[in-house]
Amino acid sequence: MRVLLTEDNEGLANSIVHYFTDNGHAIDWVHSAEKADLILSHDEFDMLILDVNLPGKSGFELLSSLRSRKNPLPVLILTARADIDDRVSALDLGADDYLVKPFDLRELAARCRALVRRERGKSDNEIQCGNLSFNSATKTVKIDDEIIELRPREVQMLELFLTHLDRMLTKDDIANRLYNFDEAYTPNAVEQTLTRLRKQIQGSTLIIKTVRGLGYLAHVDD
Amino acid sequence: MLTRTALLMCTVLAILSVGVWHYANTSADYSYDRLLSSASVTMLDGINVDKNQVHIDLPYSAFEILQLAPEDKIYYGIYGPNGHLLSGYSDLPLEPSMTERAADQPRYELHTYKGQKVRFIVRHKRLSERSVAGNVTVILGQTTIARDTQMRDTLYAALTTLMAVMAIALLVLWLAINRALTPLSWLSSQLVSQSPLENGQLPATKIMEVAPLTQAINNYRQQWLDALAVMRDFIADASHQIRTAQATTKAQLEIALSSQSEKIDRSVVEAIYQDHTKLTRLTNQLLVHATIVHRGDRQEFIPLDIPVILQEVITHAVRDYAHTDIEFEYVAAHEKVAILGDEIVLKEALRNVIDNAVAHGSTGNAATHGLIRISLKASGPNCQLWVEDNGPGIPEEQRQRALERFVKVGSNTQGSGLGLAIAQTAAISHHGQLMLSQSELGGLAVCFLLPRLTEASNASLNS
């Protein structure tokens, strides 16, 4: 993925650039919001990592001007402010995610991947989650490039989870997508399908957590 | 205050002076008009008809009466029934009126005559002889030197008395104000001489009226001092914690740098990383704690739907701990639960308790997974938010201590010792409390007991 980093702290920026390059991502670094705006106007990026406190125009200003131009570029906000409200206002302004400094580089990379994945899932047929890939056109599932055979219901369920990563899905949410009105299903049916799906995708980086009393949550641990 | 009172008194004095002047005038006129009146009566007595002629015999006694004002001059004129001047000055400034009747009261008038103020009396007498019938009129005037003198005397005497009374009143007032304000001056002198941060109570006063005030000031000051002491403790604790962590990292870095070999041992870097992570967490927690305390002071509470908040917090926690084998469980309440609160503070507090449960719960034996149960119970006017784990828990005698800042209980040394303190601060700022107990899962049960937003309190909020 190609990332644009807007960060005025050189030490931190260098580390991020180093880490992302080591992990095989293309990353460009600019000091200011003005520069970022200029580069974004003629170059294509998969996502933008944006610091809030920048010399000159603030990260928030850049973000809101991007969104007012209907630019759908995924944006992850970095903030170091003490006030927790900052995070809320970042999301209100149209940021896709935020991280509070200091953060783990591993966490930053994972969040970036999740954002890019989400954005690509909307347009591409191929969804890549760590070592698991899913083609929504051919309905093929691969783990480490090996095709996994899944039953239709399991494929439906997997697709539902992949399109709702990190979100809580209740048993009803799942049942409504998997079964139509005519099909009778027992409450256990969802769980049985899930159990089989879990077994099939064992060894992949996709984790499906059960939260008793609330529902299910899929997360990619890469 | 005294100046304003003096001004007020001067105004009163001015108004009173007008009154006194009027009184002095009236009384002087009253007494000297009587002289004029009796002199004119005597003069009229001397007028009679003799041989068909009006005969005037001015009695000496009339002038004797007027002699009582020796400085004054007297002018007179006597007019016959047809209005002809019979005797006296012909150029008096007033004429006898033919329409007046003898029975009428005498008329008094003030005129300037021969350059002097003169008070005149006009009095009539009815002559009813066959030959001479009609009114004879006596106009008698007297200059006003004596009456003016008397008027002035009265005026001055009254004014002097008045001013003396006013001065005495002012003096008394001044004394009274000074006396009444002495305790306050004493108080302010005491306060000026002391630093507000000095831990000294104001000396006890014997003046009963001021005692409550000194007490109030002492109380107020004590509250400030207490708040300051808490802050000082906090800063001392925080600097100790942060500096210790920093010192550890720094020492490790120095050792790593002073190593003879060119390559740095990976384990050393890992140890530094671990310690730095601890330092990071500590700093974050400290800032969160400070923020919560600060937000608690501002009290901007809005109605919050607790299940929604809980689900959000749990979703985030599940996501962040997805890579571990910790299981989460949610037990919902049977009814709607809403409270009046600060969403951010509440979420932060819950997250801290959940993080705590993760850190302390998962260290249990390997046979069982770490289990964290979050439940919401509605009980009358309150609601309970429970976070339970299946870890080793905290022994009962240490639970109270576990709520204190920087206190770490149990074997885990990775924590900052602030998680539960943050939760407690949040609970208290929401007018609730934080309770620790033994969970039926085996570990610690943390309960936020918070007052619910009921229909009644919601209505009173909206009105």
Automatic annotation (TrEMBL), chain A:
DNA-binding region: 124-220
Xref: SUPFAM superfamilies: CheY-like
Residue span, Response regulatory domain: 2-116
Keyword Repeat attached: no
GO biological process assignments: regulation of DNA-templated transcription
One of the record's GO molecular function terms: transcription cis-regulatory region binding
Entry-linked Pfam families: Response_reg, Trans_reg_C
GO cellular component, one term: cytosol
Keyword field: DNA-binding, Phosphoprotein, Transcription, Transcription regulation
OmpR/PhoB-type domain boundaries: 124-220
Gene3D superfamilies: 3.40.50.2300, 6.10.250.690, Winged helix-like DNA-binding domain superfamily/Winged helix DNA-binding domain (1.10.10.10)
Domain of life: Bacteria
PANTHER family in alphabetical order: REGULATOR OF RPOS (PTHR48111), TRANSCRIPTIONAL REGULATORY PROTEIN TCTD (PTHR48111:SF67)
Name the record gives this protein: DNA-binding response regulator, OmpR family, contains REC and winged-helix (WHTH) domain
Lineage: Bacteria, Pseudomonadati, Pseudomonadota, Gammaproteobacteria, Oceanospirillales
From TrEMBL, chain B:
Domain Histidine kinase: 237-454
Gene3D superfamilies from the UniProt entry: 1.10.287.130, Histidine kinase-like ATPase, C-terminal domain (3.30.565.10)
Matches recorded under InterPro entries: 2CSK_N, HATPase_C_sf, HATPase_dom, His_kinase_dom, HisK_dim/P_dom, HisK_dim/P_sf, Sig_transdc_His_kin-like_C, TCS_sensor_his_kinase
TM regions (residue ranges): 6-24, 155-177
Entry EC no(s): 2.7.13.3
Main location as per UniProt: membrane
Signal peptide residue numbers: none
EC class: transferase
Pfam family of the protein (one): 2CSK_N
Protein location: Membrane
Keywords: Kinase, Membrane, Phosphoprotein, Transferase, Transmembrane, Transmembrane helix
GO molecular function: phosphorelay sensor kinase activity
Reactions catalysed: ATP + protein L-histidine = ADP + protein N-phospho-L-histidine
Protein name in UniProt: histidine kinase
Organism: Marinomonas fungiae
